[in-house]
Amino acid sequence: MREAGVLKGVQARIDWRALGWEVEVSLRFTLDKTNPRAFDEFLSALRQVPEVTEIQSFLGSVDWRASVIARDMTHWQQVYRDRILTLPHIAELDALMLVATIKDSGELAL
User: Where is average pLDDT lowest: 4-13, 28-37, 63-72, 88-97?
Assistant: First the structure.
């Protein structure tokens, strides 16, 4: 599978809660597309946020999704105010706080 390009690598999965990072938030961003550099400038700034663990781009009404972790609610509020709300070119922002993970698997019956 590795030679055929199906297996891209092996990863360790971190249990952030076991390390004291209790808050997980999924952020959905829609950008102000009137600036031709909006996507590049936003992505460059988002990559600089240390608490962002994943970034995805989309077609449709949402342009970007980011997973963010924080130690607790006080830390989350600080990250949100100081790092997320200051990102450039945000037209709309939606935050979804993770309550529970029901399934977290890359398994697929082939």
Answer: 4-13
Q: pTM of the entire structure?
A: 0.85
Question: In the sheet that 90-97 helps form, which strands lie side by side, from edge to edge?
Answer: 52-57, 64-70, 23-31, 90-97
* Pair of tokens at residue 15: 């249990």
Is 109 inside a domain boundary? no
Residues 57-78 have pLDDT tens digits of 999 999 999 999 999 999 999 9
Please tell me the distance from the alpha carbon of residue 89 to that of residue 95, in angstroms, as a whole number. 17
- Which residue range is the domain that position 88 belongs to? 16-97
What CATH number does residue 90 fall under?
A: 3.30.70.920
